[in-house]
């Protein structure tokens, strides 16, 4: 039986989110008032430290290989995924960090965004088109993995490779 693997359809998605999180990091480092920002600089640093997929790397680090394995394992081994796990998968971020995001992200409405300004990292994730499409299709925090994969492939967020 052929082995199925999944990859992010556009590497640019992961590159863009890495750039946005990097800008947030730079802004946090330049800010004199770190206490008003509820984002953990440590968490931002963690994400930027090989927790975002990079399939362009010729000689990926052990951390990058572990991120790729974790990301893929969520798509292979789980039957249900949380909304945040799905969002991170679409963005090319290691979904083991899903619990660090706002647990109500899936039900946040546009007029609730002012509450999100306390966490600019959550605001970045909220503003992504992937978040809005995912919320439109799956209005729950428990998502069937097979339905998610089919939807993500239809929308060209994931591609399936059979060896």
What is the number of helices? 8
Whole-number tally of structural domains: 1
Which strand order spans the largest sheet, edge to edge or round the barrel?
A: 1-4
Rg, rounded, reads: 16 Å
The tally of strands reads: 4
Give the end-to-end Cα distance, rounded to a whole number of Å: 9 Å
Contiguous uncertain segments of 5+ residues = none
The main sheet comes to: 2 strands, antiparallel
Summarize the amount of helix as a percent range. 40-55%
- Determine the strand fraction and express it as a percent band: 5-15%
Helical/strand content category: mainly alpha
**Helix-strand pattern:** EHHHEHHHHEHE
Summed over residues and divided by their number, the pLDDT gives a mean of 85
What is the overall silhouette? globular
What does this structure look like?
This protein is mainly alpha-helical and 163 residues long. Helix content is 52%, strand content 10%. It has one domain (4-162). The strands form two sheets. It has a two-stranded antiparallel sheet with strand order 1-4. A two-stranded antiparallel ribbon has the order 2-3. The longest helix has 20 residues, at 11-30. The mean pLDDT is 85.
